[in-house]
Amino acid sequence: MEIQVSAEICKLIPDFKIGVIQYKNIVVGDSPQMVKGRLQLFQESIFFELENQQISDLPGIKEWRNIFKMTGKDPNRYRHSAEALFRRIQKQNYLSSIHSAIDINNFFSLQYQVPIGVYDQDLLKGPVVIRFGKEGETYIGLNGRSNSLEHLILSADENGPFGSPFVDSDKAPVTIHTKNALQIIYLRPSTEVEAANKLTKSLMNMFTQIHGGEASYIIIE
After folding, report:
1. Residue segments in the chain with a per-residue pLDDT below the cut of 50
2. Which residues pair with 148 in a beta bridge?
3. In 3-state terms, what secondary structure has residue 196?
4. How far apart are CA 147 and CA 26, in angstroms?
5. Could you give the 3-state DSSP secondary structure of residue 130?
6. How far is CA 120 from CA 99, 163, 172, 183, 187, in A?
7. Residues 6+ apart with CB under 8 A from 212
8. Given this model, what pLDDT does residue 143 score?
9. CA–CA separation, 80 and 85 (whole Å)
């Protein structure tokens, strides 16, 4: 599947980059106990670290908050998904296991402090474009609410927006029935290309170790 980044984003954020991974013939199911255990221990470790640190001061969280400001979205009202995870943990509202794909997604989002989206590729059509939301654009998010997409960085296919670093829509969620998936890592613009490749490849390898199948990735600047 072809992925493009709009010229408007590149102009406003010259170092903008995403990691894109495409998976084929995967098997999504209950997470192995190893994954569940690591996710729980990691959250407990983060909770104790946050006793002496502001979430908004964490490098990845701060950088994506600044991106939201640049695009015209109030980061206090529209908290990107990685920040939302950290704020849940700060309240000891720990993430419970959903299924293997979401658990791995959340683990890496916490580890690298960046938003990551994973989608059922068979529910998407045509090329995917990363662009700014237009006036009046909305979708029903996985949070169950109608979300304004104006000025928000989002991902869209031929049928319109389906995801963003804020909250994904209910159009193409990964489920236990998903066989082919698309994963988008909203990398920190300050990340060097070599580090971006290493991060993306690490996520891809762990994902395929759990889910099987085949995968390929690319960094799009």
Report:
1. none
2. 138
3. helix
4. 30
5. strand
6. 14, 11, 5, 9, 21
7. 25, 26, 27
8. 87
9. 9
- Residues 6 or more apart from 119 whose CB is under 8 A from it? 162, 163, 168, 172, 173, 174, 181, 182, 183, 184
**pLDDT at position 67, please?**
97
Residue (of 4, 188, 23, 45) closest to 104 by Cα position: 23
Strand order in the sheet with 214-220: 116-120, 181-186, 18-24, 214-220
Are the beta carbons of 203 and 126 closer than 8 angstroms? no
Give dist(CA 219, CA 194) in Å, integer. Answer: 10
- Kindly state the tokens that stand for 101: 């794909």
Question: What integer pLDDT is reported at residue 187 of this predicted model?
Answer: 98
Residue by residue, DSSP assigns 7-20 as HHHHHHSTT--EEE
User: φ and ψ at 220, to 5 degrees?
Assistant: -110, 125
The predicted pLDDT at position 53 comes to 93
β-pairing, 181-186 vs 18-24, is antiparallel
- Which residue is associated with the tokens 């969280």? 61
Q: Are 184 and 219 in contact (CB under 8 A)?
A: no
> CA 27 to CA 73: how far, in whole Å?
37
